[in-house]
Design brief:
Layout: E1 8-12, E2 16-21, E3 25-31, E4 36-42, H1 64-77, E5 86-91, H2 108-122, E6 127-132, E7 136-143, E8 149-155
Length: 158
Amino acid sequence: MYLTPGGFYFGKAGTRIKTILGSCVAVTLWHPELRCGGMGHFMLPCRGQRRAPQAAGEWDGKYADEMMHLFMARIRSSRTHPRDYEVKLFGGGNMFPALKSRPAREGVSARNVEAARVLMAAYGFKVAAEHLGGDGHRSLVLDLDDGLVYLWYKSMKS
């Protein structure tokens, strides 16, 4: 299945989740015993204005903080815990490295990377691997059969 920006998927073995990343960040989770997990592809750390959705169905995977609510709902419903999952983080590439209008640490890609790291720690996940930052785009595939993530990275400097 293909995950578009803002997309979220959580399921069982037998599924491969694919996505393409620029400044967005993908979070992959995989439970090695149950062979389930998923991917969230967020575009921004949070909404401009904070609001609490009335129902779980109103969380939007475009935002890192809301994507985590989606993951946590699925983790609770599967009666597992964040510590049970292999977590990998990808993306956050600077897609416009030639533009020097603001320091790189203030750009959306850097804010996305920081949000991913902060949220993983806040929810008790241990990150097993990451491929974050840089100045290019990534394609990746998460295989829920074995938890492997296949990554292709293209730097804009090449």
